[in-house]
Structure formats: C-alpha cells, structure tokens
Amino acid sequence: QNLSDLGGLIGISNSNLRSVKTRFEGVCLLALLVADSPTDTFQDQCISWLRTVQHTIQSQDPQTTIEVAIWALRDLLKYSAQLPELAREVAMNHIPTIVTSLLGLKPEVSPRLQHKQSPFFLIKGLRHETGSRVRFGSRESL
Asked: What are the Pre-rRNA-processing protein RIX1 N-terminal domain coordinates in residue numbering (predicted)?
C-alpha cells in the first residue's frame, strides 16, 4: 500500500512539474519526496529528480519556486553523496551543469537562500504542525 501511495505521489509531482501553473506545488511535493522516500526509491528516482530540479532552476518561474527547487537540490546532493555509486554518477555527470545553473540564478535569489528565508522552512513547519505528514521511509538508516 505505501509503495503504491508513494508511486502515486511521484506521479502527481511529475505531472505538476510539467506545467508552469502547477510547478510550485510539484516542486514542494518533490522536496518532501526527496526527504522522506526510502533509499531504494531515492536511488531509482535521484537522477530524474536532479534533472527536474535543474530544469526548474533554469526556468523563468517565480523566485519562490526556484528557491524550493534549490532546497530539494540540497537534499538530493546530500543524500546521493551517501550512496557511493550514485555519488560517482552525480559528481561526474551532473555537478558541472548544476553549478552552471546555480551561477546563472537571478541576483535576488542568492541572498535569501544564504539567510534561510526560503519558503521551504514554512512548508516543513506546516507539515509538522498539521500532522499531515506521510512518511514512507527514513534516510537516517544510510
């Protein structure tokens, strides 16, 4: 049941990420999926998620959408670094283009991220306050 629910959430996130109108919702869900997916799901989805996040960072989407994508990227890189094969693939094939994307950010995005004024903190807080969090796994076991 949980794996089918997880697959459904991944599908919803992917669908939302394809449309400019729903990309913010998609990237918020993606950020939660990155943080809470079991290791095997994370390994299967990581490269696809990296590409999606990079596309979002390069887009002309609103600043808040890009900021949430960057927070998802932070977790993607942090967790992928704990898995040797995935870490090698990310380092060799994806880090250079990610750095280029980050260097191309609008100037107003960088200072907000440095001061942790990201909307992702609000999302995490709401998730804990409402008790609506769905947990499929824990990255702590890595």
From this structure: 18-109
